[in-house]
Design brief:
Helices cover 37% and strands 22% of the residues. The strands form 3 sheets. A 7-stranded parallel β-sheet has the order 3-4-5-6-7-8-9. The chain has a 4-stranded mixed β-sheet with strand order 11-10-12-13, covered by helices on one side. It is globular and about 70 Å long. By secondary structure, it is α/β, with parallel strands linked by helices. The protein contains 14 helices and 13 strands.
Length: 392
Amino acid sequence: MGVALLVPSRIQSLRHGVKMEARERYLFTTRFNYEDALRNGSVMIVPVFLMNKGCPHRCIFCNTRQIAGKTEEPLTKDHLRRRVARCISPGRHAGGPVELAFYGGNFTGMPKREQARLLEITNTLMEEDLIHRVRIATRPDDLPPDTLAFLSQHRVGTIEIGVQSMIDDVLERSRRGHTAQDVVRSVRLAKERGFAVSVHLMAGLPGDTEEYFAETIRKIIALKPDMVRLHPTLVFPETTLAAMYTAGEYLPLTMANAVSLCKRALTQFDKAGIPLIRLGLQETELMKMPGGILAGPFHPAFRSLVEASIFLDMAVQLLLKYNAMEKRVCFSVCPRDISSFRGERNGNIHTLMTRFKLNDITIQPDPALERGTLVLALAHHGSQQLRRMDQN
């Protein structure tokens, strides 16, 4: 779905919420394909947190304040304009589409008057060329046809549905208040109306198992959403889950288990052609504070851990199959994958050197390679490659 967009390549900061004059910014006209932008990671999502507005109740794991890293922010035109301007300032914005996202609540659960007020502001920001799309987060049981028509009329482009799991028992234990069938219905209706659909999933919820999580991934792939966000369950203070954890009624995933589950999810989504646009929660200042996270597999670069584990698996497969004699090997990867191939603190390199008794590993950046591809160059076998999506 190609859309002609005006994209700021350099935008000076907005002061006092006043619209910039044309001479103060440099714009170029280009043509974006939103799906391509999602896949190459060039979409700039500007999050605005609703702080549980519109939610009919509180799920057992939810502490929006910790995740957002702030108290309630004013949802005014000037505030949102300044929020966007900070995110697209020089050095932070690479030039792709800018999407303002209302997170941390149930947008469609708010009064229609408030929804309309906020969407009138985003329409103004689109007319000012500050943003190009609007994303709203909602629940699977709060997207009737008339609501979808309302969102379409107000130029919403992406609907993110808080799914969490496709297992009804897991949803019930988490007090989600909806069923897996609600997810099926809402995704289908949203796609039929032409919205880009994102689903939000969590691994390691109470009652979840490896088999249940795999079933969730299979069912989500069958629904063919346009994108997915996924993170392991964390125990935040002032939640029902925290009380369960303290009482010994809930045991969070270990880091190893979380990486294992999520790397299988990532490879499955890759095979299905569904971008996993976020893996793990973004760290906030409140999460860094003592007691900010009570338990659970948190890492500020969780996706890097998952991708490093996948690259290690691929390297091991290649060396087991093709490297019988050589003690010096050369791997080629996309330049953006070098860090993931090396692993945290060069952990993958040390593991491979030790396991295969290698004298040297050379890493050759190859811009021609797709991300998630690993090539092993061998004197007797030529070049052999694996792709992330080929993993089980």
